[in-house]
Amino acid sequence: MTTLAASKIRLYREERALTRAAFGAWFDTPGSTVQGWETDGKRANTKVMNQIAAMGIADHADWHVAVRDVESAMASWTPDSWTNAEARQMPKYPDQAALDAATRQLSNYPPLVFAGEARDLTGALAKVSRGEAFLLQGGDCAESFAEFHPNNIRDTFRVILQMAVVLTFASKLPTVKLGRMAGQFAKPRSADTEVIDGVELPSYRGDNVNDIAFTPESRIPDPARMVQGYSQSAATLNLLRAFAGGGYANLHQVHKWTLDFMGKSPWSAKFADVADRIGEALDFMEACGINPDTVPQLKRTDFYTSHEALLLPYEQALTRQDSLTGDWYDTSAHFLWIGDRTRFEGSAHVEFLRGIGNPIGMKCGPSLEPDALLRLLDALNPGRIPGRMTLITRYGHDKIEAGLPKLVRAVKREGHPVVWSCDPMHGNVVKAANGYKTRPFDRILAEVRGFFAVHRAEGTFAGGIHAEMTGQNVTECTGGAIAITEQGLADRYHTHCDPRLNAGQSLELAFLLAEMLNDEMAERRKAAA
Question: N or C terminus of the chain: which is more exposed, having fewer CB within 10 Å?
């Protein structure tokens, strides 16, 4: 066993290529003493503890927090060690040979993302965990092969850009942009089968697994669909990278990000006002010689991708060893998360994700108790690396203020560096009178308000939002400024799985979030004064 302080010191040294002797020399301490801190869990004397704390490397309390040795924890991990654990929510493929052929084919394909990009995201999320940035994660509930179109990708991307601009403008914090895109094809289900008109068939589990058409043939899990999912993810990523780095994300284009059909929304007018103010600031900066040619950050943005790591044969096939560090990364996305149904102790999904170097997330709902959460955090982030772990809460508008505080207190007490993000979608699904599943916008907003209230009360940072949304003009969630009614759900209800916020509702949520975040930052400035 070692200590959290030792883990932080080791990480600090490695990031700066310092030997133990060189690090120890700063404190008139030999390298052998630093080795004792890092490998044997020994504590520094009070003077050195004070110096290390003053440098922001490790707090005093970190010397008293025991942490499992990361190297020994990883010794038992391999990309396929998950196969020895309990795997829930996984399809039963009838043809093992076809599954082997598909995963073999995928394992020879190029990575979709690169280890260095994943490490960059970990660094950005570390800032969120310290309250120095905000996480915006959004995109489709379930991507589909049928609706794959560049316009759909572009429209979702630009709504996320709009939301990020609103959040950054209000809070003066950078916004980390993370899309539920380029891989969100597999979905957990509440039951293995579904019944329609007396006919029972296997549940639809996402286009990576089977087809949404309700026929016996369509619902058979087909491993060849994983290869199609890879191809669509590659094409989506190619377009997203072009948008993010090719000038579309240029802040001088901010007025052009508004979708035509959003003209009736009062929030479009408010966004236009924000865009005008940004434009005035950019004009002033350009007069001072600061423009996209001199500051490239003005014409490009960092945009990352994420999905639930549910279909483990696919994830394993795209897991590669980084040639620079020797660590393993899942190259299917920059960020992977574990769902509420698969995050139990002994889970195959926990076993898989604990071994990859990507930043990861975990959904936390009403059934999760503090002790279980702490054990899962110890398994998934034994080195307590800032930015690696995001906790995505999903309670429901009427449960969050009662259920979340105990988790926040436990994590804070044990010193785990996490990003707290709110998923206000999954706990607020209702069935309308006409049979459509929907999510009332007022309940979504109420859960977000509860999330911020809990963190304000506990002295922690409400660091992110995780929303199922689209750039399309759908009618799937009721309410909002445009006031979609239950009767209006049938107009443009296109989701393959759960109801999504449309572009107008997404922008409205961003403005309301910005108000809460601005209030939060004002309180922090007041407390620091």
Answer: C
Give the chain's length.
529
DSSP conformation letters of 18-47 = --HHHHHHTTT--HHHHHHHHHH-----HH
Distance CA 107, CA 466 (A): 30
Distance CA 156, CA 142 (A): 13
Taking alpha carbons only, the member of 171, 306, 149 closest to residue 239 is 149
Residue 50 has, within 13 A of its CA and on its CB side, a CA count of 3
Give the contacts of 518 (CB within 8 A, at least 6 positions apart). Answer: 170, 171
Which range, 157-161, 228-232, 278-282, 433-437, has the best average confidence (pLDDT)?
A: 228-232
* DSSP track, 384-418: --TTSEEEEE---TTTHHHHHHHHHHHHHHHT--E
C-beta of residue 252 within 8 angstroms of C-beta of residue 295: no
Closest to 505 measured CA to CA, from 487, 483, 489: 483
CB atoms within 10 A of CB 512: 17
Q: What is the SS3 assignment for 270?
A: helix
Where does residue 109 fall: left (phi above 0), alpha (psi -120 to 50 degrees), or beta otherwise?
beta
pLDDT for 260 beyond 70: no
- Count other C-beta atoms under 10 Å from residue 65's C-beta: 18
Q: What stretches of 334-399 show up as alpha helix (H) in DSSP? A: 348-353, 370-380
SS3 assignment, position 479: strand
Angstrom distances, CA of residue 93 to CA of 99, 102, 324, 491: 7, 12, 36, 36
**pLDDT reported for residue 261:** 60
Q: What is the pLDDT of residue 417?
A: 94
- Mean per-residue pLDDT, 89-116: 97
Provide CB contacts within 8 A for 129, sequence distance 6+.
386, 387, 417, 418, 419, 461, 463
